[in-house]
Amino acid sequence: MIKAGVIGATGFSGIELVRLLAEHPQVEISLLTSQTYAGMNISEVYPHLSGKVDCILSDLDPEQVVAESDVIFIALPHGHSAGVVKEAYNQGKKIIDLGADFRLKSAEDYEKWYKTEHTAQELLEKAVYGLPEVHRVKIKDADIVANPGCYPTSVILALMPALKENLIVTNDIVIDSKSGVSGAGRKAKVGMLYSICNESISAYGVASHRHTPEIEQELTNIAGEKVNLLFTPHLTPMTRGILSTVYVKLKKTLSLEEVRGIYEEAYQDEYFVKVLKPGIWPGTKLVAGTNNCFINLTLDERTGRLVVVSVIDNLIKGAAGQAVQNMNILFALEEKTGLTNTAVYP
User: Into which CATH architecture does domain 151-314 fall?
Assistant: First the structure.
């Protein structure tokens, strides 16, 4: 059995991770930490885990977590992972960081976008960006896996086939994304109050969202040339889910059938990424509670643009599920182990 420790177990991503690990046939939860609820049983904080997980939450002690775990999942806000990652790396333990601290290869970019000093810059090159559909081979031998952000996951999977085949103009990409309220985390915020976000949709982080450099970094690596994009996220009055609509200009004239064939071939062997049949457009309900990404596309012949729509559950494929997928790769398990559930619908 793989002994798994979860740091930050009571946030939204953390508790989804606990739920998935508790159902995983090859995992034993070794330790759960929580700054807010230390000393309480996890089932007292989240009664839906009663009878499933019996574990007293503890304060964070990096040495204890590393000593008691084969793999350490870190589900903390940005700027809080460095100490644990250093300790785990020095002890030869596997690390999967669900936060942003090891996603960007440039410390300068990280400090610019996240407004905080990076205190483990020497480990940035050791980290592998944990999007399995792109970096599966590298993840297999990694010590530090930087779990992707939720928005970047939806966007990168929407564009990877087109970029690999050099189909699109790389300096003219427009991304319109919409996310459920859980993407903002569990901490109380005025903008997340029911009376404010219910029956409303609003843009935020316009031309300044922190996921922008992450998306550009990974798309540039795929394309082999510099990618520039315009990314606008929106908050929608739903609990979970992300829908990204991406608009790109084709470099040459292609039929929709040709482009669709490229996407279908790219994802034909991927368990979690599905290109839907023509006319069936993805909705967030179709992937709720799953590690799936559903995609569809069309060509606007009038403007010469390809329109790609992708959906994921921001807490699963966008966070906890993808982390488990990465763990499965690290420990040479079948990649879909513990992640084969069907979406809850409606």
Answer: 2-Layer Sandwich (3.30)
